[in-house]
Specification:
about 325 residues; alpha/beta; 6-stranded mixed beta sheet; 11 strands; globular; disordered N terminus
């Protein structure tokens, strides 16, 4: 080292200084992101968030960890743990733990929180999102009414909260456009994940003549398959599991929401915002699933009608009404 000429040594030191300065920035290029889920990660809604975060991790953008089946009473503790653990972004669903989640966000103003919520954003760091997929839900309603022979449609949901209500109401409105005389049976199982209960509720409706089931929860498509009636999916596409049962699905894509949030966190520009719009069809946050195995079974006239409505939604000439009130059986 002593015999090394002076200039290269200075160069080396300058280089080392540059590397040291860049160190934290380089380390920060891979954000630490944590997610908290109150249900199993395979549950429809949560699986879409998990899918988007796993995609970001696969791209090398983030380090991603999550906790599933977190009890409401435990939610605040897990949130704090992740906030203390150096996560730049914490994603979750605060529907049943709104007050606790907002309290945690206030205690960690430097951490970005992106939470599924019926409430408004909370400055400076609590952003909200939701599955605003009422547009494809409307389109699936059109398909359901067009495929129903009895004109009776059964609908099984989790809880009558805005997130569920708006999709059911949009579905009903779409069905009514195709068949103004369509009749609906509506039931809520008061659980986010209870397939046997959802299945029982669906059986009761099928027994009363429903020949298309709106499967807002897992379990409904199983009942439809057993009784050989049709089902319409929600949030995810399960047609590969039910190729002769699931005729159409309203898909939720969480990727646009996650991508915007990550970009803002990286740029140091994350603030309290409502990310709901990123779930709309315009942002590719939702879509009508391909008809797949039903492509040849859905009448051409109905397909054309749905396609025209989809185009009208995308160009803004038709707006699907957001109705958060509890849907009424009619």
């Amino acid at each position: 080292m002593h015999s090394m000429p002076r200039r290269p040594l200075l160069g080396l030191l300058a280089g080392a200084a540059l590397v040291a300065a860049a160190g934290p920035a380089l380390a920060q290029s891979k954000l630490k992101v944590a997610a908290i889920y109150t249900v199993p990660v395979e549950q429809q809604w949560v699986s879409r968030i998990d899918k988007a975060l796993k995609a970001a991790a696969a791209r090398g953008e983030i380090e991603y960890v999550f906790s599933e089946n977190v009890a409401n009473a435990d939610y605040e503790r897990v949130m704090r743990q992740y906030a203390e653990g150096g996560n730049a972004l914490v994603v979750g669903e605060s529907f049943a733990v709104e007050a606790a989640a907002r309290k945690v966000a206030k205690d960690y103003p430097k951490v970005a929180f992106l939470m599924g919520s019926s409430g408004k954003p909370q400055a400076p760091n609590f952003s909200v999102f939701d599955n605003y997929i009422q547009e494809p839900a409307y389109l699936t309603g059109m398909v359901a009414a067009g495929m129903s022979k009895s004109g009776k449609i059964g609908m099984v949901g989790g809880y009558p909260i805005p997130e569920v209500n708006r999709l059911m109401n949009a579905f009903i409105a779409g069905a009514r456009e195709v068949n103004p005389k369509a009749e609906f049976s509506i039931s809520f199982i008061n659980s986010w994940f209870d397939p046997p209960k959802a299945k029982e509720a669906a059986f009761a409706m099928i027994d009363k003549g429903a020949d298309v089931m709106y499967a807002e929860r897992f379990g409904v498509s199983d009942a439809a398959k057993e009784r050989k009636v049709l089902a319409v999916g929600n949030v995810i596409n399960t047609q590969s599991t039910y190729p002769d049962t699931v005729v159409a699905s309203a898909l939720w894509n969480m990727e646009p929401t996650i991508e915007v949030a990550l970009k803002k966190v990286k740029a140091g520009q994350f603030s309290a915002e409502d990310y709901g719009a990123y779930s709309t069809m315009k942002h590719k946050g939702s879509e009508l699933a391909p008809l797949g195995t039903f492509e040849a079974k859905v009448p051409a006239e109905l397909k054309a009608r749905v396609k025209a409505k989809e185009k009208a939604i995308l160009d803004g000439s038709f707006v699907v009404k957001v109705d958060d009130s509890a849907p009424k059986a009619k």
